[in-house]
Amino acid sequence: MAKKSKKKTAQRSRQRTVKKVKKRSAVKPARRKKVVPIAIVPAQKPSTPSPTAHYNPYEVVLHNFELASKRINLSDELAMLIRTPDRELRVELPVLMDDGKLHSIIGYRVQHNNARGPYKGGIRYHQEVDLDEVRALASLMTWKTSVVDIPFGGAKGGVTIDPTKLSLGELERLTRAFTNKIDLIIGPSEDIPAPDVNTNAQTMAWMMDEYSKVHGYSPAVVTGKPVELGGSLGREEATGRGVCIALRESARTHHLDLKKVTVAVQGFGNVGSHTARILEQEMGVKVVAVSDVKGGIYNPRGIRFSDASTQFKNTGSVVGLKGAVKLTNEELLELKCDVLIPAALGNQLRFDNANRVQAKLIVEAANGPTTYEADEIFASRKIPVIPDIYANAGGVTVSYFEWVQNVQRFRWEYARVVNELEKIMISSYAAVLQMSEKHKVPLRIGAFILAVERVARAAKLRGV
Ligand code: NAD
Question: What is the pTM of this model?
Answer without folding.
Answer: 0.89
